[in-house]
């Protein structure tokens, strides 16, 4: 299962990809060598030596130079044992056990995914909320592609006392 996320440095929402779809952009980014300085990736958390709870992850960041937005692209390469792609997707789409979850709402169902609103609150911090567009593609080989991008939606206005996390 592939996942890509956009994490901005500023409050600007990512612009649409004009000349390719999310899958094509994901494939282009996946081909980039994380260890090639010219590609611009910085590995923030490398693979653990061993699986922890049948799971391990590598996190990398790079400036988003494709949409004209000064955001970072977050690349999460994940390895699971004993988890199906559908079970992982279900967790992404409905993270009921997300620590600090206060609100989760499907704002709009799209032909290829959803717009979701999520508000979380960590101890000693102000609440944060998100408006995300989920693009989901069930591939012919049985794999599932899911891309989350920061979005705006009329049903997801800014709320007093809540920080909009991008």
TrEMBL record:
Domain of life: Eukaryota
UniProt-listed SUPFAM superfamilies: Bet v1-like (SSF55961)
InterPro entries with a match to the protein in the record: START-like_dom_sf
Protein name listed in UniProt: Uncharacterized protein
Organism: Polarella glacialis
Source taxonomy: Eukaryota, Sar, Alveolata, Dinophyceae, Suessiales
């Amino acid at each position: 299962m592939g996942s890509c996320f956009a994490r901005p440095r500023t409050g600007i929402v990512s612009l649409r990809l004009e000349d390719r779809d999310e899958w094509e952009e994901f494939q282009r980014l996946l081909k980039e060598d994380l260890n090639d300085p010219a590609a611009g990736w910085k590995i923030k958390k490398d693979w653990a030596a061993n699986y922890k709870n049948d799971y391990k992850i590598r996190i990398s960041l790079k400036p988003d130079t494709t949409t004209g937005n000064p955001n970072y692209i977050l690349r999460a390469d994940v390895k699971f044992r004993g988890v199906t792609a559908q079970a992982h997707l279900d967790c992404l789409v409905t993270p009921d056990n997300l620590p600090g979850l206060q609100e989760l709402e499907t704002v709009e169902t799209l032909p290829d995914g959803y717009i979701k609103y999520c508000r979380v609150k960590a101890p000693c911090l102000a609440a944060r909320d998100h408006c995300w567009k989920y693009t989901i593609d069930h591939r012919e080989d049985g794999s599932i592609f899911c891309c989350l991008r920061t979005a705006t939606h009329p049903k997801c206005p800014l709320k007093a006392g809540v920080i909009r996390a991008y």
